[in-house]
Write a structure and sequence with these properties.
The complex is a heterodimer of chains A (about 140) and B (about 300).
Chain A lengths: L9 E8 L3 H7 L9 E9 L3 E9 L6 H7 L4 E6 L2 E7 L5 E3 L20 E6 L4 E4 L8
Chain B lengths: L11 H16 L12 E6 L4 H13 L3 E6 L5 H5 L2 H11 L2 E6 L4 H7 L5 E6 L5 H15 L6 E5 L6 H10 L6 E5 L8 H4 L9 E3 L2 H4 L5 E4 L10 H7 L7 H4 L7 E3 L20 H20 L6
Parallel strand pairs in B: 1-2, 1-3, 3-4, 5-6, 5-8, 6-7, 8-9
Helix pairs in contact in B: 1-6, 1-12, 2-12, 4-5, 6-7, 6-12
The chains are: A mainly beta (about 140), B alpha/beta (about 300).
The complex binds zinc ion (ZN).
Chain lengths: ~140, ~300
């Protein structure tokens, strides 16, 4: 296996579904940060067969809500001094800001400058969110 | 500070109080002749609606208040490009309360979030129209003496009909109401309206007007607009199914109440107006008084409200 330096200080996103690593990289806007970031694709994993991982050095301020919405199975490991200090289990957030974009052309979000797209969790079981403004459902 | 953006913003008790207050005002209008002295209502109609605007203005003036505002054609092109947030911040400096109609869904919520005065949603696109709903509830209450245990039919454009969305949602708050929806496939009620929360789906059935009118206590009619159809042939084929005639009314209960938010075009035949069950003009009269009660409530300082 390709060897990637383990990080001593930062975040490791583990158990990302294989092939989703790149889209999560963009979703978390990791292309805009100065930190060292590694995307590791198709790692062998007992649980998933194959998985992707993302390692981010020296950063802890990730949008965990957005991550929970994309895939609540991802594990978030906080690494300090080379040790796993904390594991976050993700859950569906009750509210999402600028993660889902409202597609309803009659919605005020399509016209009002500077207005954020806010979605509110409506049905947890079926992962349904509704636009705060027009109530259109995502998906 | 309270706003009225959605028909469920007020509790059942608050709605009941508003209806009682409106009835008191009808009985003794001079008692509130000075209730809003020195207060200013701003009417912000980004989309014209003569009827709703006049009703609010008349309500405010009858309580000794003043009215400022704009409507449709008076909007300069610059004002049209201004955001809702900027408009309401400006208006907050000039008025004590405002009423807004806007073509986009959710516009009233944007206004409320940026406002330092109470905002009344007088229609946001095809979404909600809660002050019309108060009028509808008041009319139903005066006719049936209750707002629960009713079978309520909605007929016509249930997709874009904001008055329908708001009244439907409000009536789901009361126990044991049943709903019958009569509309062309193209204009069915959006799921978000009748799935109010993830569990409860209101008790709903669908059907042809002739077949189901006999079960209804209330029939709420709306217009089916030609421009909502993809082609003329569908419109011509379907439109008569959604027109209430004397003949269809023969199948209805003797105490059915036919309501319509008005203006009516041809969806209720003029011959129906003479039938005792036609209550839409009575409904229009109630509109001003419930709006007086609403303005009075929203202008009350927090401690009294
Ligand atoms: Zn929306």
């Amino acid at each position: 296996m390709l060897s990637i330096d383990s990080i001593t200080h930062g975040v490791v996103l583990d158990h990302i579904a294989a092939g989703r690593g790149m889209s999560i990289f963009h979703l978390l806007k990791l292309d805009e940060v100065d930190s060292t970031v590694a995307i590791i694709k198709n790692v062998k994993s007992g649980r998933l067969g194959r998985k992707d991982m993302i390692k981010i050095e020296d950063r802890f301020d990730l949008d965990l809500d957005a991550l929970g919405y994309i895939d609540a199975n991802i594990t978030v490991n906080i690494i300090e001094d080379g040790q796993i200090k904390k594991k976050h289990n993700l859950s569906l957030p009750s509210r999402l800001t600028n993660v889902i974009i409202c597609k309803n052309p009659r919605c005020i979000t399509s016209a009002e400058q500077g207005l954020e797209h806010e979605f509110v969790l409506f049905d947890k079981e079926n992962k349904i969110y509704r636009c705060l403004y027009c109530e259109q459902e995502n998906g | 500070m309270r706003h009225l953006l959605d028909p469920t913003d007020f509790s059942i008790n608050e709605t009941g109080e508003l209806i009682r207050r409106a009835e008191e005002i009808i009985a003794n209008p001079s008692a509130v002749a000075d209730a809003c002295r020195g207060k200013i209502l701003a009417t912000l109609f980004f989309e014209p609606s003569t009827r709703t605007r006049l009703s609010f203005e008349s309500a405010m003036i009858s309580m000794g208040g003043h009215v400022i505002g704009f409507a449709g054609a008076e909007l300069s092109s610059a004002a049209k490009g201004e955001s809702v947030a900027d408009t309401i911040r400006m208006v907050s400096c000039y008025a004590d309360i405002c009423v807004m109609r806007h073509p986009k869904e959710g516009a009233a919520l944007v206004a409320a979030k940026n406002s330092s005065i109470p905002v009344i949603n007088a229609g946001d696109g095809g979404h909600q129209h809660p002050s019309q709903t108060l009028t509808d509830l008041m009319t139903i209450h005066s006719l049936k003496k209750r707002l629960n245990g009713l079978t309520v039919g909605f007929c016509g454009d249930l997709k874009f009909g904001r008055t329908v969305h708001s009244l439907f949602r409000a009536l789901t708050l009361y126990p044991d109401n049943r709903f019958i929806l009569v509309s062309p496939r193209e204009l069915q009620m959006p799921e978000y309206v009748y799935r109010a929360d993830s569990r409860a789906i209101a008790c709903v059935e669908f059907g042809n007007l002739e077949d189901v009118i006999g079960k209804m206590d209330i029939l709420y009619m709306t217009r089916v607009q030609r421009e909502r159809f993809f082609n003329e042939a569908d419109y011509v084929r379907l439109k008569d199914s959604y027109i209430l005639t004397k003949e269809k009314l023969d199948h209805a209960k003797p105490d059915l109440a036919v309501l319509h938010p008005l203006p009516r075009v041809n969806e209720i035949a003029v011959e129906v107006d003479k039938d005792d069950r036609a209550k839409y003009f009575e409904q229009a009269r109630n509109g001003k008084f419930i709006r007086m009660a609403l303005i009075e409530k929203l202008l009350k300082p927090e401690t009294e409200a």
